[in-house]
Every structure is written in structure tokens, then in C-alpha cells.
Amino acid sequence: MRNDYLDYGRHSRRRSAGKKTAIAAIVVMLIAAAAGLTVFFVSSYYYEVIDEQDNSQYATPIPVSVAENMQDEGAYAQTGIYGLWYSSQDSQETDELESVYHPEEHLWMGDFKDERPRVTAKGLYISSNYLVSKFDKAVSLVDETELNAVVIDVKTEDGYITFKMESDTAREIGALTDSIPDINKTLKKLKDKGIYVIARIVSMMDPKLAKNKPELAVTKKDGTLFKDNAGKAWLNPFKEGVWDYLLEISKECVKVGFDEINFDYIRFSTGKGMNDVDFTADAGDRTRIDAITDGIRMICEEIKPMGAFVSCDVYGAIVTSTVDAKIVGQSFYRMSQYLDYICPMIYPSHYADGYYNLDHPDMHPYELVNHALMDASKVLYMIDSDGNKADVRPWLQDFTASWVKYHLDYGAKEVRDQINAVYDSGYTSWLLWNAGVEYTKGALQRD
């Protein structure tokens, strides 16, 4: 989480021979450790209010630290094997996050012949209600600019599904709606315009399924349903039935014609009540990262042969912080070994002051995005070239974070600066987020 977390030359340092030098080194180490935790706590301050994509809930940040949910409260930050932060001195921690392919092992999905046509997606999020009520306006930017993709809600933060599909579970719990009355007609209209269509599935936040099937939900040690700070229940990623439900929905999306399945909130909650949750019986010897990674792998094995792509939205911080990765269960490194696309949410407003040595990250959109994506490249470089390696397609900020003390009014320049940073970092795809579906046309080039 610090501006000096990259430390590739640490193996070549010479040991100090003098007593004064040794004492000085210890002092520096203590200061560095304290500074690392300070930045971590400050950035964690925003996690629950700035929770994933829904910036409609933003207000004055509530001081909730992700570290409060850590089972190992004595963990502290230090550099990992390729220069990134990780917590605890236990070598098992490194194994959990940074396992690599071994040539002698069977290549994952080695028999899969990938004939799916790839698209360099430049898109934006559109809510289902907006898509139906204002279809022409919703796709006008795609018609008139460089955009060629849209991300549409299929499963919402409340657990409802936006169109009628063949899902026994969804039907049983009353999750099916007709927010999109005729999904086939809607998709055809989009496809006729040459638009790449992505189905957004909110994964683990699901009050609907949790209420009707509490055996699949996150529960407290006393057996009651866990609810986050917003009062919403979550599913338990250690439960096989949870992944079966997500797979069922995903397959239906592919059948009706979606080009890609995108999983949002595919993580553990960061709410305060997580301290009272006990996953022991369900988890066994698996970690949170194991639970999320194993589920993603299973879904990819089923969906890819059907012809659709699979992507996941992740916190931007997990690219470099394995402290955060442990808590939410998202390992950028491990998830990328199975996904087609990994989508870090690198909104400048979501980073604490001082991150990447930027005084106020929201006021430096180009620099923040460039730093984050360069780090993503370093992590993915460690994946064996013979194995699967996800393409990075970031979410960018097209909204003004007025709740942040030091912020900019995001207009054409600020949004375009982020897009240019994507290109300058070596990537070609990106997505824009605005919960109100109000985007900055001036930031986009003409088609």
C-alpha cells in the first residue's frame, strides 16, 4: 500500500557490518512497517462506503477498517517474493497467493480449443431499467463514439434477476422479474448494432437467496443471518450450492446470447459483523482465496466451452496488497490463471491520500490508473506463459467523488486522462462506470 512497495533489488542488498548501521536498519524497518499499516488503514477506511461499483450510496465515509475482519490480528505488511505487499511471516501465505504452474503438471483445460472471437471492448455500464425505458439514449453513445460494448444487470444487488429464465432455484425463491420484458428482442437490437453485450451478475451479495435458503448464506456464530452495514445478507462462498446457482444463471445468459459473463461482488463481505462469522465447518482447510478461486475455475470450465467469455470485477487494491486479498478472497494472481478478463476497479477516488506517492489520488487520474495497471502487468508477468492468463480490462471513473475532501470535478479531460493511461500502460480495453448512467460524451472519440 506504500509508494515504495516494489523492491526487486532486495536480494542483492549487502548486510551491514557496523553496529550503528544495524541499529539504524532496525529503526528504518520499524518506521516502514508502521507506515505500511498506516496507509493500509487509511485506504481501508473507505471500503464499506465505497463498496464495489454502487457509487449511488456514497456519503461521508464511515471509518471501518478491513483489518478489523482479519483473523490474524497480528499480521503486518512486508514485501513478498516479487516485491508486492503481503501479511504475516508464514511462508504458507506466499504459497496461497503466489503459487505458479509447474511444467510437469497437466495444463488446465489443455484440451479446450478456443475458437471464441475476441473483442477489444470499450464499454459502459447500463442498468436494466435504464436500458428498457431509455433504450435509444442508452445506446446513443455507442452509436456515435468509439464505444462498442455494454454491461447490463442480470442479477442485482438485491438478488433479483432482470429477465425470465429457466432456473428452478430462482423461480423457487421468487427472484425472477421482467425488468427486461423480452431479453431476446433486446439482445437482438444490441447485436444488430454490433455491440458486444456483457451480463453483470452480482455474486455474493444476495439478500433474496440468503433469506429463502439460509443454509447457503453467511451466518454468525449464533446461527443468525449476517448482514453488512447496509443491512444486506451475503452468500457463503465456501458452499458448493452457491456456485451451482451462479453457474445456473450464467448458463442461461449464454443460451439467450450474452457474449460475456461478468461477476461483480465476487468476494467476501468487509462489513464489521464478519468478526462474528465462523466459516470453519464449511471451509475446512481452505482459505477465502481458495473458495473464490475454486468457484471461478469451476464456472470457467463450464462456460468457456459454451462460447462465452468470463470476467470478474475486483478491488484495485488487491493487485498489490495481499492483506486485502486475504480478507476479500480475491487474488489477482490466482484469478487471472482461469479468467478471460479481470477487471480491477481503479477509480482514483477509491485510493487513500499518499497511495503511489500521490498526495490526493482523485486529483491525479492519469497517474493513478497508469501506476495501477503497470503493477497489474508485473503480477501477470509471473504467470507461466503456457497457462491461461487473463487480459486486464479496468473499470474507470466517470463520476465526481464529491464525498472525497480533495477531489476534481470529473469531466472530459479527467475521463480521457484515464483512458489514455490505459493505452500508455499497454492495454486496449476499458469500461466506464456511473451508477446514474450519465456519461461524459466529450471524453470519447468519434467512431
Structural key phrases:
single chain, 447 residues, alpha/beta, two-stranded antiparallel sheet, 14 helices, globular
State the separation between the terminal residues, measured CA to CA. 38 Å
Largest pleated sheet: 9 strands, parallel
**CATH level-two architecture:** Alpha-Beta Barrel
SS summary, helix count: 14
Uncertain segments of ≥5 residues (pLDDT<50)? 1-29, 31-97, 99-104
Strand proportion, as a percent range, falls in 5-15%
- Read across the widest sheet, the strand sequence of neighbours is 9-8-7-6-5-4-3-11-10
| Structural class assignment | alpha/beta
Number of domains: 1
Strand tally: 11
Instruction: Give me the CATH fold name.
Output: TIM Barrel
CATH superfamily label: Glycosidases
**SSE order, as H and E?**
HEEHEHHEHHEHHEHHEHHEHEEHE
Tell me, what is the CATH class? Alpha Beta
Estimate the mean pLDDT confidence. 82
Shape: globular
Estimated helix fraction: 25-40%
Measured on Cα atoms, how large is the radius of gyration? 22 Å
In short:
By secondary structure, this protein is α/β, with parallel strands linked by helices. It has helices at 19-44, 91-98, 128-133, 135-144, 168-173, 183-192, 207-212, 240-256, 280-283, 288-303, 322-328, 332-335, 365-380, 412-424; strands spanning 77-79, 85-87, 122-126, 149-155, 196-202, 260-264, 309-315, 341-345, 391-392, 395-397, 430-433.
